[in-house]
Design brief:
Elements (H helix, E strand, L loop, with lengths): L5 E9 L6 H4 L19 H4 E3 L2 E2 L15 E4 L11 H9 L3 E4 L4 H10 L2 E4 L2 H13 L4 E5 L4 E3 L5 E3 L4 H9 L3 H6 L2 H14 L1
Parallel strand pairs: 1-4, 4-5, 5-6
Antiparallel strand pairs: 1-7, 2-3, 7-8, 8-9
Length: 198
């Protein structure tokens, strides 16, 4: 997993609440077990008129948001099924951080496991970032995990909370398996003692 420390990037707005995982990556694309090949189909039903023709009315298809690495969205982002493919699709689309007033718990956990940072800001803070991203092209923000702040060059700044374990894992680029493998020497020593004993 790639470490996450500080990201300054273009912000794309998705001014919708209750965006569920079936909208993020529809069920017909869940046939792969690899973590790749999903970005093209993220937000499929909104993104395309008829594949591969893009829907010009879908906000993320606007040229000014091409290359965005930060997504700002409405409340309860990632609700619905627990598919881990949702963060895979968002990351392959290009996002490294998502800002919203709230997230579905399982989706949020899946984001942490894949190096995608879900940032909970106040509704006022989300409205500020969303408004700036909607009003003009090229709006950029900085998500700093070390200081736990979202800020921009115009003076906006708001702190966010994150569990220390998750923060430390993201800073080091470790998912739960990676955290376990850090203890490889201790595990090997335990196994060496356990085998003759039992």
């Amino acid at each position: 997993m790639e470490p996450f420390k500080k990201l300054t990037g273009l912000v794309a707005p998705l001014d919708r609440g209750n965006v569920d995982t079936d909208q993020i990556i529809p069920k017909q694309f869940l046939k792969r077990v690899e973590r790749t090949g999903f970005g093209e189909f993220a937000f499929f039903d909104w993104r395309y008129l008829e594949y591969p023709t893009l829907n010009p009315k879908f906000v993320l298809n606007e040229p000014r948001y091409k290359g965005a690495t930060i997504l700002v969205a409405g409340p309860n982002f990632g609700s619905g099924s627990s598919r881990e493919h949702a963060p895979w699709a968002l990351m392959e689309y290009g996002f490294r951080a998502i800002i919203a007033p709230s997230f579905a718990d399982i989706f949020r956990s899946n984001c942490f496991q894949n190096g995608l940072l879900p940032v909970v800001l106040s509704q006022e803070g989300v409205n500020t970032v969303m408004g700036k991203a909607l009003k003009r092209a090229g709006y950029r923000a900085t998500v700093d995990l070390e200081t736990q702040t979202v800020s921009d060059a115009e003076g906006f700044s708001e702190k966010f909370e994150i569990d220390q374990f998750r923060k430390d894992s993201l800073l080091k680029g470790l998912d739960d398996i990676g955290r376990t493998m850090v203890k490889g020497d201790l595990i090997s020593a335990f196994e060496a003692r356990r085998t003759p004993r039992w």
